[in-house]
């Protein structure tokens, strides 16, 4: 009897009580993951507290597959900070560094210009047509922490959905067949 | 009941937890580090102030940049992003920063900077539709500005932080060329 045989035996041995218990424990895992994510959103004030770097425009600082932790914060945005922003007409947000800041006291707003460390020119070519500056509403958060390589997991899973299904299936099986 | 899947799961969970803890500790040691950087910034030459056709203000500056940032490096430092910005304050706009020069330092041995650079300081005019408005207070005339060197420390893993050295007391020309 290998692991497969054990698993089959475990499934055969289940009764209603067991099934209910396992459904609940599966639900607990899903909801606790959701709670952690939503809690992070509240805590950091950013709509996506963790982002994966997808391009090499910030090399050698950030490489594809690195993870960034975002925080919005109340402090005004300053040159040198790395911000995540979205541009109208683009689905994927961009992570680049602020190189110019002009505040507007009357409106309580600001205008910033960004650039990728590895790019030669600034980001005006990436912005929407005729857009010269980023303003408050474009900025999703600023990078405060860094973790290398971990983002490869999500990159691999989005590029090969079968690996994702396999992993989810394996985890589900693990939860169902474990006795406790 | 133990199966090999459960064991693999336990080993994976434990190793991820230990790695996460190590990363957190490595990042925390950065907080204990007290660097002693030396920075010297000078304006060698201020070019004529120009109002361009599209309403932008532009001025050429020659800067002398000297710095020793070797002591900023720790075992958890991946690179420094160093830049020099001109900063000024205006009643209409509040605080303004224009980056004039930047560099990436990946090794401690290269953390001594001694350069003369020419840079153009540009204040883009505000554009409304097709027309350009050189609004009052959104130009560079007669600004008192300071030069600030910032170094953004990017870790191998953990938190970013930025430090700076401010050199005040510079002024831009009062009239256009």
From TrEMBL, chain A:
InterPro entries in the cross-refs: LexA/Signal_pep-like_sf (IPR036286), Peptidase_S24_S26A/B/C (IPR015927), Peptidase_S26 (IPR019533), Peptidase_S26B (IPR001733)
EC number: 3.4.21.89
The UniProt record lists the keyword Translocase: no
Catalytic class of the enzyme: hydrolase
Source species, domain of life: Eukaryota
Record's bilayer topology term: Single-pass type II membrane protein
Catalytic activity: Cleavage of hydrophobic, N-terminal signal or leader sequences from secreted and periplasmic proteins
This protein's UniProt keywords: Hydrolase, Membrane, Protease, Signal-anchor, Transmembrane, Transmembrane helix
Pfam families: Peptidase_S24 (PF00717)
Subcellular location field: Endoplasmic reticulum membrane
TM regions (residue ranges): 19-37, 139-156, 162-178
Record-annotated Peptidase S24/S26A/S26B/S26C domain positions: 41-128
Gene Ontology cellular-component annotations: signal peptidase complex
UniProt keyword Transferase present: no
SUPFAM superfamilies, sorted: LexA/Signal peptidase (SSF51306)
Family from the record: Belongs to the peptidase S26B family.
Function, in words: Catalytic component of the signal peptidase complex (SPC) which catalyzes the cleavage of N-terminal signal sequences from nascent proteins as they are translocated into the lumen of the endoplasmic reticulum. Specifically cleaves N-terminal signal peptides that contain a hydrophobic alpha-helix (h-region) shorter than 18-20 amino acids.
PANTHER family named among the record's database cross-references: SIGNAL PEPTIDASE COMPLEX CATALYTIC SUBUNIT SEC11
Protein name from the UniProt record: Signal peptidase complex catalytic subunit SEC11
Source species of the chain: Ceratodon purpureus (Fire moss)
Organism classification: Eukaryota, Viridiplantae, Streptophyta, Embryophyta, Bryophyta
From TrEMBL, chain B:
Major place of residence: endoplasmic reticulum
Subcellular location: Endoplasmic reticulum membrane
Keywords assigned by UniProt, alphabetized: Endoplasmic reticulum, Membrane, Signal, Signal-anchor, Transmembrane, Transmembrane helix
Swiss-Prot/TrEMBL GO biological process terms: protein targeting to ER; signal peptide processing
Membrane-topology annotation of the record: Single-pass type II membrane protein
Pfam families, per database record: SPC22
Domain of life: Eukaryota
InterPro entries: SPC3
GO CC annotation terms, alphabetical: signal peptidase complex
Stated name of the protein: Signal peptidase complex subunit 3
Species the sequence originates in: Ceratodon purpureus
